[in-house]
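Students often ask why inverse folding is considered easier than folding. One informal answer: many sequences map to the same fold, so there is more than one right answer. In these notes we will look at a single instance of the problem. The structure comes first.
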């Protein structure tokens, strides 16, 4: 068998991987191989924003992982949908464009990661973006990633903004601009009524480049080393084990679950954990898989009449959906351009805080158990997330077979402070939805609980809360003095050569907001670093 050789091998065509493949292949003198476990993103279920409702429960483009039983959630196993397709989770997410708070990146830099402050990253956010609405010093035009407002705006959104204002949360149209705090309509990664994923923005327009080779349905088995230098990877394709070689570097972009799993399968991690599965230790790096952080999400939902501008299961709703699908096919407009999650807010749980610590996501539908549990009729939902949790989990192995799921243990609510903050957030969001602007449409709660009954709400949180799909931190970036650091500020894996990790797993701490925009900027950042080196 002939082994192909490329300058760069990128493992994972997710948010960062698509960016890196695009940016590095801009140089016609280098060759790039991009390996992706999933398949093509050419599906109406991906491209039509409202079809996101199928993404969480369908395994067609989704790993559909489960966590270990969570003591803080009454022993429940959490659900962790992650994209298994070109574009990764940017092809299956709710498309909300959120950068986090400038404080987050300044905090990263202060932890010993030079080059990662907000001032350092803002030019990369702007370079990646084409913003249709905002033309100022915080936003870019001409970048690959199209950012705009959703094409369909339900009048119910105005009720949320009015209710937020009545509860002390002022309007702030641009939460990615000068100030994050306030209530707003979410900016989304849409283009002409379709999803604008990292694949659509960066990869698809460049597939004709002769120096860019994309291999789908390729399950990477391990990184190969010679004298602690990464020389390529082995991968399964159609049941056959194959190899590709790298002249310069291997770059892992498998995300907060995939990248630590692959490092461990390749012999990099805590020696005792690797030896349990008979994996030869290439380099002991105890931080691999540790430091897992995620936004825990608590959803409350209310019934509304079927004649409101919401999504739901009813004869009226079915007729509206059919008409909306026909409109989208013809014009790329109408309700099918909605991602359901429409309005939101960043707020401080206490006036003593300097930055928001809670995020709200308002949804014009009933969302229950990742849309896997359906309820007849129409409704509205609101999600509250604690932005910087204290709980820390880990990712390990179930076996030495790369085709098996990793062992995911977020340890949700293992720190009591997280429960108290989420409880406070739940009370705030309930008071907002139960404010006067919603009186004309608000019906009964799907899971009734009183905002002033802390014991009942705590029970509801432990019974139903789960991920908001933002796992990070398992290949932590940090200085040599940090015992859990896996990569340095250049995203090079410590103790070996020719290997980097570039995805949300390198976040030292979870940012105050959705993680996709930042994962894309990680791809921009590492591409810049690699080009500067070579």
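Output (designed amino acids):
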């Amino acid at each position: 068998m002939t082994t192909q050789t490329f300058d760069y091998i990128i493992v994972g065509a997710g948010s960062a991987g698509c960016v890196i493949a695009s940016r590095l292949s801009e140089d016609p003198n280098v060759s790039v191989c991009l390996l992706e476990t999933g398949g093509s993103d050419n599906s109406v279920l991906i491209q039509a924003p409202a079809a996101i409702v199928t993404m969480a429960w369908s395994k067609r483009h989704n790993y559909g992982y489960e966590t270990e039983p969570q003591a803080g959630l009454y022993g429940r196993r959490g659900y962790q949908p992650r994209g298994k397709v070109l574009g990764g989770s940017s092809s299956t997410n709710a498309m909300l464009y959120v950068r986090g708070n400038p404080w987050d990146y300044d905090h990263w830099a202060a932890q010993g990661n030079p080059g990662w402050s907000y001032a350092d990253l803002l030019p990369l956010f702007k370079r990646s973006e084409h913003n249709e609405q905002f033309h100022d010093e915080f936003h870019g035009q001409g970048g690959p990633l199209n950012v705009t407002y959703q094409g369909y705006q339900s009048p119910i959104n105005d009720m949320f903004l009015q209710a937020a204002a009545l509860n002390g949360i002022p309007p702030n149209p641009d939460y990615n601009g000068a100030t994050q705090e306030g209530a707003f309509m979410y900016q989304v990664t849409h283009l002409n009524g379709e999803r604008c994923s990292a694949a659509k923005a960066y990869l698809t327009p460049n597939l004709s480049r002769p120096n860019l080779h994309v291999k789908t349905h390729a399950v990477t088995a391990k990184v190969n080393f010679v004298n602690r230098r990464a020389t390529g990877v082995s991968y399964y394709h159609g049941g056959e084990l194959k190899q590709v070689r790298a002249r310069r570097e291997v770059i892992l972009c498998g995300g907060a679950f995939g990248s630590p799993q692959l490092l461990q399968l390749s012999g990099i991690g805590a020696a005792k954990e690797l030896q349990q599965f008979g994996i030869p230790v290439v380099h002991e790096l105890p931080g691999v898989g540790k430091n897992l952080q995620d936004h825990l999400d608590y959803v409350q939902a209310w019934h509304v009449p079927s004649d409101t501008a919401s999504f739901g299961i009813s004869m009226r709703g079915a007729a509206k959906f059919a008409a909306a699908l026909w409109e989208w096919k013809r014009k790329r407009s109408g309700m099918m351009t909605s991602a359901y999650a429409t309005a939101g807010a960043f707020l401080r749980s206490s006036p003593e805080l300097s930055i928001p610590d809670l995020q709200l996501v308002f949804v014009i539908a009933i969302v229950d158990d990742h849309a896997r549990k359906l309820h007849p009729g129409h409704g509205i939902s609101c999600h509250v997330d604690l932005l910087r949790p204290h709980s820390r989990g880990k990712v390990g192995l179930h076996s030495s077979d790369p085709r098996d799921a990793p062992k995911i243990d977020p340890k949700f609510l293992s720190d009591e402070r997280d429960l108290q903050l989420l409880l406070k957030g739940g009370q705030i969001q309930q008071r907002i939805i139960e404010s006067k602007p919603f009186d004309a449409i608000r019906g009964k709660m799907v899971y009734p609980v009183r905002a002033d009954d802390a014991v009942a709400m705590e029970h509801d949180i432990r019974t139903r809360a789960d991920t908001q799909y933002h796992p990070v931190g398992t290949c932590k970036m940090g200085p040599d003095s940090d015992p859990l650091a896996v990569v340095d500020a250049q995203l090079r894996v410590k103790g070996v050569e020719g290997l980097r990790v570039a995805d949300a797993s390198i976040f030292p701490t979870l940012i105050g907001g959705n993680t996709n925009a930042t994962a894309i900027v990680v791809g921009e950042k590492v591409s810049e670093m690699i080009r500067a080196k070579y």
